[in-house]
């Protein structure tokens, strides 16, 4: 077998690289899930549960953890991190991504929660994955939560949700009678105004496109 010839083949190289990445991902997932807490040097506490982890991996993946462990903070001295603003399931999904680059099976709800965690711990790859999933899952039911997530954490995702609403509802009478719209006006009046302004501009642009040009 001509090994040098095989190695010079681009397809073969890509296959070998993919297999190596898959194997590496499996090894790190094993490290994350091992019951013996293989050489863990920090404990993440969330929802009454303690999850062993490894500072070097968390620091390499997240600038937030890197800063936390590099400075003489409580977390660095005591080797414990209290995480109170995300659920245990979301934390485990974050860890899975940080250790393996994988995402667990997503739903709109879990992707929205994970998007928040990815934004907090500065994981752009995970944010992108969640954003793609949320856009692909956009529906009249899900758009309102996606809109709120985008408004807080990602301008591009917010714009996508606003555009969906503008294209979906041609008549404002339909929109204003929706419970989701009423809740948005009540709970986030500033965001409701943003949507309304965009909706009005969208209607004006459609009218201009339909208006016949003068010869």
UniProtKB/TrEMBL annotation:
<dbReference type="InterPro" id="IPR000210">
    <property type="entry name" value="BTB/POZ_dom"/>
</dbReference>
<dbReference type="InterPro" id="IPR011333">
    <property type="entry name" value="SKP1/BTB/POZ_sf"/>
</dbReference>
<dbReference type="Pfam" id="PF00651">
    <property type="entry name" value="BTB"/>
</dbReference>
<protein>
    <submittedName>
        <fullName>Speckle-type POZ protein-like B</fullName>
    </submittedName>
</protein>
<feature type="domain" description="BTB">
    <location>
        <begin position="40"/>
        <end position="102"/>
    </location>
</feature>
């Amino acid at each position: 077998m001509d090994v040098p010839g095989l190695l010079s083949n681009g397809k073969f190289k890509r296959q070998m690289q993919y297999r190596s990445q898959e194997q590496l991902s499996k090894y790190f997932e094993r490290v994350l899930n091992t019951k013996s807490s293989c050489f863990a040097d920090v404990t993440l506490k969330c929802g009454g549960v303690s999850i062993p982890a490894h500072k070097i991996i968390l620091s390499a993946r997240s600038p937030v953890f890197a800063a936390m462990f590099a400075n003489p903070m409580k977390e660095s001295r005591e080797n414990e991190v209290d995480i109170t603003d995300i659920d245990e399931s979301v934390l485990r999904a974050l860890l899975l991504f940080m250790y393996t680059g994988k995402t667990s099976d997503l739903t709109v709800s879990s992707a929205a929660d994970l998007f928040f965690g990815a934004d907090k711990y500065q994981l752009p790859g995970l944010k992108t994955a969640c954003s793609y999933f949320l856009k692909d899952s956009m529906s009249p039911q899900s758009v309102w939560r996606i809109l709120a997530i985008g408004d807080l954490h990602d301008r591009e995702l917010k714009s996508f949700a606003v555009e969906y609403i503008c294209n979906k509802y041609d008549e404002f009478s339909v929109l204003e009678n929706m419970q989701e719209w009423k809740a948005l006006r009540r709970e986030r009046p500033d965001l409701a105004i943003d949507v309304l302004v965009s909706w009005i501009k969208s209607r004006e642009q459609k009218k201009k496109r339909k208006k016949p040009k003068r010869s």
